[in-house]
Specification:
Blueprint (H helix, E strand, L loop, with lengths): L2 H24 L2 H7 L2 H22 L2 H10 L5 H22 L13 H23 L3 H25 L3 H24 L12 H11 L2 H22 L2 H10 L4 H19 L8 H24 L1 H8 L11 H24 L2 H26 L1 H26 L6 H20 L7 H18 L1 H16 L1
Helix pairs in contact: 1-7, 1-12, 3-6, 3-8, 3-10, 3-11, 4-5, 4-6, 4-9, 5-6, 6-7, 6-8, 7-8, 10-11, 10-16, 10-17, 12-15, 13-15, 13-18, 13-19, 13-20, 15-16, 15-17, 15-18, 16-17, 18-19
């Protein structure tokens, strides 16, 4: 099977499993905004975001090390899993012993136990599912995603409208869903047979940690870039405004959902390449198509931002739509940064991933402090976009030294300018309702222009997909 056929096959499998899951979660926004006030929703998201920050810290990001090692063509896959599991066990024990310290943080006085459960269970789920994906159980990996989502929805329905557990129910739903899914995977695959205690080796653990340790601060820096603005809006403005800002982020997350699906398939495909330089053309063609889909997808989300808000948001959240266009623009560059990060992942130069993420985090915090006092949550949106844009430029410059694929700076610049024009047009339509029809007409015209400009990569994508599907 060719590289492209393998990538398409993996993408279709992950799409079948993950897309349904992500869409179901997306449409749960209506339930969340109906059962939780903006203040409660803000608190729930802050708890979940803090847990996501601590997940790689607790176990040193070992699930990424398991995936990268087990996905390679050479090496003892079960030994990598066993050593990774040992790191998980030690890390989780230390984390649980230290977790009571979180209760001294004002935001998490009553929720430290929830965060601890969330982190430990999420890490175990990640270790198990990433290993199964790396060894070729892609259909099972996709299927467990659907199961996990169904459980989250079921627990949410039980804990929010029925039992009225509020914030605790929102977080506990994810914890119980992850735990149930992990138990299912272990029993279904008899995963205990892959555990070989005699294969635990300091050298193997050292090699795995050398790869994944730089990813821990990378994750922290990405968290600062993507999430710290919510804490700063809550601190510098209000919980209500942060609730609006947080729910507005759910619409651009549609693009992130698509990116996460492809990223799983892409990393699985390129991890099998022993010589990253040998797949230069592979990177060039995929990058051209990937950027086209990212820019056009972002433009489509902007045009539909008001419609999504009216359908999905409760009345108390309708004002949130104003932040969607700028956050969507930021999300497009998040997607580009994610792809470029795979170059560091493939070439095992994860230190560069950490450095570029550090640049974005520092810039984001600085801009938040400067812009939020005058522009409120809109300032946070602009800061997020600027941070991801700079990181994208930085990564374009550094990845070229590792794998010299065609980056097409000119086409990227034109797409960026067109998407920025769309963002400004849609956002400023709010200031004069009488101008909304013709301003949206102008935005639609810019989108058509962008589509025409990208016709060549679109035609290439359709042609390649048709040929591979025929094979």
């Amino acid at each position: 099977m060719s590289r492209y056929s393998r990538l398409l096959s993996n993408t279709l499998v992950f799409t079948a499993g993950k897309l349904l899951s992500k869409l179901l979660v997306f449409f749960m926004i209506g339930l969340y905004t109906a059962c939780l006030s903006p203040e409660e929703y803000s608190t729930a998201e802050l708890i979940a975001n803090m847990a996501n920050l601590l997940i790689p810290l607790a176990c040193l990001g070992i699930s990424e090390g398991i995936f990268r090692s087990a996905a390679a063509k050479s090496g003892d896959k079960e030994a990598f899993f066993t050593n990774g599991l040992a790191v998980y066990g030690v890390g989780s024990l230390i984390f649980l012993l230290l977790s009571p310290l979180m209760s001294f943080i004002p935001f998490f006085v009553d929720s430290a136990w929830l965060i601890a459960c969330y982190v430990v269970v999420a890490n175990l789920h990640s270790v198990v599912s990433q290993y199964l994906c790396a060894v070729g159980r892609t259909k099972l990996f996709a299927g467990q995603g659907i199961l996990n989502t169904a459980l989250v929805i079921g627990f949410n329905i039980l804990f929010l409208p029925i039992l009225d557990f509020g914030v605790t129910g929102y977080v506990l739903s994810t914890v119980l869903a992850d735990l149930t899914t992990t138990v299912f995977l272990i029993l279904f695959t008899r995963l205990w047979r892959a555990v070989k205690p005699k294969s635990i080796s300091k050298q193997t653990i050292r090699e795995m940690l050398r790869f994944c340790l730089p990813l821990v601060p990378t994750t922290i820096f990405w968290w600062i870039t993507g999430v710290s603005d919510r804490y700063m809006v809550a601190w510098m403005c209000s919980d209500r405004l942060n609730g609006l800002y947080t729910v507005a982020y759910k619409i651009p997350n549609l693009l992130i959902y698509a990116v996460s699906i492809f990223d799983s398939a892409w990393k699985l495909s390129v991890s099998a390449e022993e010589d990253p330089e040998a797949c230069r053309d592979f990177y060039s063609r995929v990058w051209r198509i990937y950027t086209t889909i990212a820019f056009l997808g972002g433009g489509a989300l902007m045009l539909c931002s008001r419609l999504f808000a009216r359908i999905l948001f409760a009345n108390d959240y309708q004002d949130a739509w104003i932040y969607i266009p700028v956050l969507t623009l930021a999300t497009v560059f998040t997607a580009l940064c994610t792809f470029l990060g795979s170059v560091y992942f493939t070439s095992k130069k994860t230190m560069w991933s950490m450095i570029t993420a550090f640049v974005g985090a520092g810039l984001n915090v600085t801009l938040n402090l400067l812009l939020i006092p005058g522009w409120d949550a809109m300032g946070a949106s602009v800061a997020t976009f600027a941070s991801y844009f700079i990181v994208c430029v930085f990564r374009l410059g550094t990845t070229h030294r590792l794998i010299s694929f065609k980056q097409e700076w000119g086409r990227g610049l034109v797409n960026t300018l067109l998407l920025c024009c769309m963002t400004v047009t849609v956002t400023f339509s709010e200031h004069d309702p009488a101008r909304i029809p013709w301003m949206y007409g102008l935005a639609a015209g810019i989108f058509v222009l962008m589509f025409v400009f990208n016709l060549r990569p679109i035609a290439e994508l359709l042609k390649d997909a048709k040929r591979m599907l025929r094979r």
